[in-house]
Design a protein that fits this description.
Layout: H1 14-23, H2 45-53, H3 57-89, H4 93-96, H5 104-114, H6 117-125
Helix pairs in contact: 1-3, 2-3, 3-5
């Protein structure tokens, strides 16, 4: 129907879309190209992403860069978690962790809020 209400639109080429994806690399890039990750585990995530982008050089470059960053972040997060657990074991938080469902983060948070338990016993004697 030609009534002059609509302007012709330009559909971007795959190359232009891939360049745009490179510039805006973020979560959800693959969905825009019709790729679905599906059900995965944390261990199978990288393998699945590599399978999806196989044969698409620009998407492979994006995926490889993001997967490399993810690997570094996961490694650093694991090291950070280990440091937190060590701090909790060596701190007054160790006693707090003996309570059910209290882990190192909750225990350290509470221990650092209390800071000096002797301070609390002094305050109670004044009541």
């Amino acid at each position: 129907m030609r009534l002059g209400w609509f302007e012709p639109t330009h559909c971007k080429s795959i190359d232009a879309q891939q360049v745009r994806a490179m510039l805006t690399a973020r979560r959800g890039i693959l969905r825009g190209f019709g790729f679905k990750v599906g059900k995965i585990t944390p261990r199978s995530f990288a393998r699945r992403i590599r399978e999806l982008v196989a044969g698409h050089p620009k998407l492979q470059a994006i995926a490889q860069a993001l997967l490399s960053m993810r690997a570094v972040l996961l490694r650093e997060l694991d090291a950070f978690k280990k440091r937190v657990r060590c701090m909790a074991r060596a701190d007054a938080a160790k006693l707090l962790m003996s309570a059910q469902a209290v882990g190192p983060i909750v225990a350290l948070t509470n221990a650092s809020a209390i800071d000096d338990p002797a301070r609390l016993s002094d305050q109670q004697s004044h009541w």
